[in-house]
């Protein structure tokens, strides 16, 4: 909309995130590219909440399938029921918090095992939204670590490059 993404407080030095609520953007600059499809209110917000919830629910179902061989309708229903009763989940969805989807990303990482390409992609994608999910690269096996790190770095680097190319 032509407005600054970050508030002047964010650009002049250290600050507390609570100081810039509703005045500044709280995620790393590369996350802008991932959030563009969700920019139109209210449909973008509904889509954002749905995608994050879908990633988490399917990630938990994938863990059940990996650990027990299948995810029965009962298990899927139990996952939904327990999530609905879990206050951090419901509050996260209500607030549109990216942590809901990032939790699903971690669940998918568990379900996927330690495949370097998959873990690298998840780490790179997660690090575009928040820095902590980038630690997924350490989930890889030792011989695959450099390949995993390179995959994550390419994804994150591509996102960063995309942001800076739009600022020119």
Percentage of residues in helical conformation:
55-70%
How many DSSP H or I helices? Answer: 8
N-end to C-end Cα span = 17 Å
Main sheet: strands, sense, barrel: none
Residue share in β-strands: under 5%
| Protein structure class | mainly alpha
Q: Topology as H/E string?
A: HHHHHHHH
- What would you call the shape? globular
* Count of extended strands: 0
Instruction: Provide the residue-averaged pLDDT.
Output: 83
Compute the CA-based radius of gyration.
18 Å
**Uncertain parts:** none
Task: Describe how the helices and strands are arranged.
Elements: H1 8-12, H2 31-35, H3 43-68, H4 73-85, H5 87-95, H6 99-112, H7 116-129, H8 145-166
Helix pairs in contact: 3-4, 3-6, 6-7, 7-8
């Amino acid at each position: 909309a032509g407005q600054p993404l970050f508030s002047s407080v964010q650009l002049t030095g250290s600050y507390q995130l609570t100081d810039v609520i509703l005045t500044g953007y709280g995620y790393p600059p590369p996350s802008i590219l991932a959030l563009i499809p969700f920019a139109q209110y209210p449909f973008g917000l509904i889509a954002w909440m749905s995608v994050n919830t879908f990633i988490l629910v399917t990630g938990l179902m994938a863990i059940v399938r990996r650990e027990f061989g299948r995810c029965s309708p009962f298990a899927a229903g139990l996952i939904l029921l327990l999530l609905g009763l879990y206050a951090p989940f419901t509050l996260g969805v209500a607030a549109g918090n990216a942590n809901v989807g990032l939790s699903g990303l971690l669940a998918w990482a568990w379900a996927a095992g330690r495949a370097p390409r998959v873990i690298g992609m998840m780490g790179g994608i997660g690090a575009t939204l928040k820095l902590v999910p980038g630690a997924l690269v350490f989930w890889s096996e030792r011989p695959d670590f450099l390949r995993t790190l390179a995959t994550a770095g390419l994804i994150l680097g591509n996102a960063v490059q995309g942001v800076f190319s739009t600022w020119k």
